[in-house]
Amino acid sequence: MSGGPAVVTRFAPSPTGRLHLGHALSAVRAHDLARGGGGRFLLRIEDIDGTRSRPEHVETILRDLGWLGLAWDELSFQSERLDLYTAAQGQLADLLYPCFCTRAEIAASLSAPHGPAPVYPGTCRHLSPADRRARMGQPHSWRIDMARAVERAGPLTWHDAYAGEVIADPLAQGDVILARKDAPASYHLAVTVDDAAQGVSDVVRGVDLFDATHVHRLLQALLGLPTPRYHHHPLIVGADGQRLAKRHGAPALAAMREGGADGHALSDALRRNMLPAGFRLGEA
Ligand code: GLU
């Protein structure tokens, strides 16, 4: 028997569309890390976005993973775990404030609305208690007062298999939303709560989610949750070096499957970082 704690990984797709090659890469890597460590591989369907999540996409995801030869040990749905997220939100209540801004208002108040990651300008943080009370009947999200949260949590780091020891800088992400207007929870809160509740030891996901980890690390500290190891792997890019988009004509896994392609062969190719013609692995 090995002495170390078991490796637990997860693949956590949002059923808002069909999976593509990048998802397959994440799933294969998460699966193999667990299997290699005698651990468990979890499949978590991140279906809290009721307006965009579709049951038919869930069906397709399950089929795609089977086609890739990836068996999961446990299947969960975030839509069935909402109480956990509400409880976590309650624990953070004194750091949250209601935000009444619409997307259009936020875009208009930013000097560079098309920049990489627009940071909320903090408009509703400055509302008086009386203004807040008067507007509570209007649709609102809940944002975290990041400056106060960072002060409370103190300095934080995490370990990333690619980037090494990372100093968390959640302040750069601004006052992110922890409870949405149009959904019962936010991505950040749900992911952080679930990774801890499900005993995930290693989070394997694309480097496009690296910035989110600054927020997740902060939430772990505030909620008293453990910090997993992170593996933010490079994304699959087109021949032009840009991340996969429609113009690259990257086929959905379902289309490859339905076209008779061999899913096990694709998994094996991804294990060797061999990609179909026209695609390659980007920078870490
Ligand atoms: N549900 C997220 C997505 O599909 C991934 C969450 C995660 O791996 O942390 O982009």
TrEMBL record:
<protein>
    <submittedName>
        <fullName>Glutamyl-Q tRNA(Asp) synthetase</fullName>
        <ecNumber>6.1.1.-</ecNumber>
    </submittedName>
</protein>
<dbReference type="GO" id="GO:0004818">
    <property type="term" value="F:glutamate-tRNA ligase activity"/>
</dbReference>
<keyword id="KW-0030">Aminoacyl-tRNA synthetase</keyword>
<dbReference type="InterPro" id="IPR001412">
    <property type="entry name" value="aa-tRNA-synth_I_CS"/>
</dbReference>
<keyword id="KW-0648">Protein biosynthesis</keyword>
<dbReference type="InterPro" id="IPR020058">
    <property type="entry name" value="Glu/Gln-tRNA-synth_Ib_cat-dom"/>
</dbReference>
<dbReference type="Pfam" id="PF00749">
    <property type="entry name" value="tRNA-synt_1c"/>
</dbReference>
<dbReference type="GO" id="GO:0005524">
    <property type="term" value="F:ATP binding"/>
</dbReference>
<dbReference type="GO" id="GO:0006424">
    <property type="term" value="P:glutamyl-tRNA aminoacylation"/>
</dbReference>
<keyword id="KW-0547">Nucleotide-binding</keyword>
<keyword id="KW-0436">Ligase</keyword>
<keyword id="KW-0862">Zinc</keyword>
<dbReference type="InterPro" id="IPR000924">
    <property type="entry name" value="Glu/Gln-tRNA-synth"/>
</dbReference>
<dbReference type="InterPro" id="IPR014729">
    <property type="entry name" value="Rossmann-like_a/b/a_fold"/>
</dbReference>
<keyword id="KW-0479">Metal-binding</keyword>
<dbReference type="InterPro" id="IPR049940">
    <property type="entry name" value="GluQ/Sye"/>
</dbReference>
<keyword id="KW-0067">ATP-binding</keyword>
<dbReference type="GO" id="GO:0005829">
    <property type="term" value="C:cytosol"/>
</dbReference>
<comment type="similarity">
    <text>Belongs to the class-I aminoacyl-tRNA synthetase family.</text>
</comment>
<feature type="domain" description="Glutamyl/glutaminyl-tRNA synthetase class Ib catalytic">
    <location>
        <begin position="7"/>
        <end position="272"/>
    </location>
</feature>
